[in-house]
Amino acid sequence: MLIQVEDAADPRLADYVRLRDMDLRKSLESEHGLFIAEGEKVIRRAVGAGHPVRSILTTAKWVERGLPDHIADVAGETTVYVVSDQVMAGVTGFPVHRGALASMGRTALPEVRELLNGTRRIVVLEDLTDHGNVGAIFRCAAALGVDAIVLSPRCADPLYRRSVKVSMGAVFAIPYARMIDWHGGLAEIRAAGFRTLALTPDQSATPLDEVVMAERVALLLGSEGDGLSSHWLKEADQPVRISMSPAAMELGVDSLNVVAAAAIACHGLLRR
Amino acid sequence: MLIQVEDAADPRLADYVRLRDMDLRKSLESEHGLFIAEGEKVIRRAVGAGHPVRSILTTAKWVERGLPDHIADVAGETTVYVVSDQVMAGVTGFPVHRGALASMGRTALPEVRELLNGTRRIVVLEDLTDHGNVGAIFRCAAALGVDAIVLSPRCADPLYRRSVKVSMGAVFAIPYARMIDWHGGLAEIRAAGFRTLALTPDQSATPLDEVVMAERVALLLGSEGDGLSSHWLKEADQPVRISMSPAAMELGVDSLNVVAAAAIACHGLLRR
């Protein structure tokens, strides 16, 4: 059902307000159990992953051009708010170029124990707080065949708009769960029979190429600045590293960003 | 020499104006042959790479705390403009948290032919226009032992502030040159004896693991959206690919971002 809305302050558009205000969005999205999908491709994937559509927001210009088939299908069963470019920018805080936004309902995440059923190759993220990095790692992990991702309690939200966008929708393609308890979380994964490999820049760790794989393997990745906590490093079965160029070490260019490191490690380890 | 400046419009601060205005900065920096280094670590690396310091801009707060030794050394031989936090934000357009900015002089890039002397493993970037991606690829390439980088004429500037920042200063650690002629540029590299490998998502290309290496190898990377041009793909010695997970292909998560792809390919190929 198409509904014209003329006023950026109309309460029916409340799901879409100030999309670049991270603090506001975090509380709004968690309180109302929603997230925003941007653009036709992402909306299609979010719907495909079983998320209910709360509403769609688009501009008159896009409606005139004809909504993409898939959006039109979804639109038949939900409310589509149609606004001018000015109202769109007024509500969201920026000019939206991808035609349509959808407010989607969150669905309950599985528990870690449940998530691990039937998986062999997983990635565990400890305290990655950058939404772009989380999204990029989901994209890599999905493309390279990782079965599932476990997040520590403080990791950034994969359904935050920027994570979803950077992931190119991969957050809907790879199952994930969030630990309740950081301190005991790794022990639960080890108890499920996973060999836990802690990726570290420490050059005394085992190079990727020399790692002996196991039936079930979990790759642990820490945050960009601090790397993995000493608690997790100590508890992991083995520290592993990416071999750096000796010349680079001398120049002090001795680390990779977490996404590059994740890509190399997923490619090198988890395909085996 | 420390000079207090009270007015954000003072012409002596002209090198530092509106650092987030990309169009303005591009023309200003190329016309005056300068670039901006941000923070002590990056300034140190830029100086170490032989770039002359035009001036430094810092805040009274940082001067009171005591400038880091290295900045103090540099500061002894140049002009240091000291401003309030308000003037800093007024000039640059945002609150600078890294203490000091330096305006550095650009030095002439080598010609491609000159750059290639003595190199065995190089990366060639075709039309990567995103500064963050260019910086991240420099960081990967430097850490993984790539000898040099060649840019196509339309590639983003590695000395733009965002490239420098994302590279963590690696743009000063790895030599690079820019082709004059896109159409004939690859032929010049091949004529220098490089085997040119074109990275492509095309799953009929040779997987990385199966590539037969040569004495001199050039890895060609195209832009995020379009990949390599058909001209370069056709001219390259061999198309190569990263193996994707079959499950991911089915889900449509069938590509990696260019930085992740570059990291995997540099790690997989160029260390050999």
From TrEMBL, chains A, B:
Residues 122-267 form the tRNA/rRNA methyltransferase SpoU type domain. GO terms for molecular function: RNA binding; RNA methyltransferase activity. The keyword Thylakoid does not apply. Residues 30-92 form the MRM3-like substrate binding domain. Keywords: Methyltransferase, Transferase. InterPro entries: Alpha/beta_knot_MTases, MRM3-like_sub_bind, Ribosomal_eL30-like_sf, rRNA_Methyltransferase, SpoU_MeTrfase, tRNA_m1G_MTases_N. Pfam families: MRM3-like_sub_bind, SpoU_methylase. SUPFAM superfamilies: alpha/beta knot, L30e-like. GO terms for biological process: methylation; RNA processing. It comes from the Bacteria. This is rRNA methyltransferase. It comes from Sphaerimonospora thailandensis.
